[in-house]
Design brief:
It is a single chain. A five-stranded mixed sheet has the order 1-5-3-4-2. The protein is of the alpha/beta class. The protein has 13 helices and five strands.
Length: 294
């Protein structure tokens, strides 16, 4: 056995001792809503694997914590490890104290920490999107956030797009129906309309027995370019037929308020939409035939 130890190296000032604290598992508290993790089966499996490692006596990294008023200790990084310890103890294993280190930093630093230190189970793009939105709420620019979490500015901007997307888009990503990157691309290109396009693609994929939408499948779900151009042209014509002064702002319009519009312009717009819808329905059997032929 070697006569050299870290204690001896510290005494010789070759290395420095770091402050490591032992905290009772019962005293380790969590801040409501702080953790970015989405509670799903993958997270459950991850926690169970940590519990198994604890029971087996494997090395578990210390939790990062911070002290608050009332002699309380909040977990900054290590929520899954904390849960693993709790479950192991509940099963009768002797666990009293947990190794912890004191986290140094402010509220924004704490959010950045849980984004960058999730090594046991990488955060999903949706979980990271929640984190970067919090950092933006602290007044951080995309460039500043990129430095804090060691990502590119483009990556941060994409995460913010996903974080700001409507619930239908986020739900599709959360359920695994579409990749986050594909959803982000749809939001960038189609804004508020992204959710409807994604749903059409997901429904079509489900009818073909597929669980996940690919970028190509989303493109197929989009109306043909010719149809879009036609609708835009007719919509422009319809808009021009309405005198600007006769249509008040949305917030000023009463429930029963009406205006007179050009019947021909409205009919042309509706006909163009119906033609586009008919073409989409006509094309669906062809797509299925092609997929069968392959």
């Amino acid at each position: 056995m070697s006569s050299v130890s870290m204690r001896k190296l510290a005494d010789a000032k070759v290395v420095k001792k770091a402050d490591l604290y032992k905290v009772r598992i019962e005293d380790l508290l969590v801040e409501e809503g702080f953790n970015l993790r989405i509670k799903d089966q993958a997270l459950e499996d991850h926690i169970e694997s940590i519990k198994a490692a604890i029971i087996a006596g494997s090395f578990i990294p210390p939790l990062a914590v911070r002290a608050i008023e009332g002699n309380k200790v909040l977990v900054v990084d290590g929520h899954c490890r904390r849960e693993g310890y709790i479950r192991a103890k509940a099963e009768g294993h002797e666990i009293d104290d947990v190794s912890c280190v004191d986290f140094k930093g402010n509220d924004a630093d704490r959010v950045a920490a849980i984004i960058t230190t999730a090594s046991g189970k990488q955060l999903s793009q949706l979980e990271m999107a929640t984190g970067v939105k919090r950092l933006r709420a602290f007044g951080k620019s995309p460039a500043e956030i990129a430095l804090m979490i060691a990502r590119t500015v483009t990556h941060v901007e994409n995460l913010l797009l996903l974080g700001d997307a409507n619930s239908d888009v986020q739900n599709a990503v959360r359920e695994g129906s579409i990749a986050a990157s594909t959803a982000i691309d749809m939001v960038r290109r189609h804004g508020e309309g992204a959710g409807g396009i994604i749903k059409s693609a997901v429904d079509k994929a489900a009818s073909e027995g597929k669980k996940k939408v690919t970028p190509k499948m989303v493109e197929v779900a989009l109306p043909p370019k010719k149809a879009i151009t036609g609708i835009y042209t007719r919509l422009t014509s319809f808009a021009k037929s309405i005198p600007a002064k006769s249509l008040p702002k949305v917030e000023d319009i009463g429930e029963a308020q009406t205006i007179t519009v050009d019947a021909k312009a409205l009919r042309e717009l509706l006909d163009t939409r119906e033609d586009a819808e008919a073409k989409l329905k006509k094309d669906k059997p062809k797509d299925k035939a092609k997929s069968k032929a392959k």
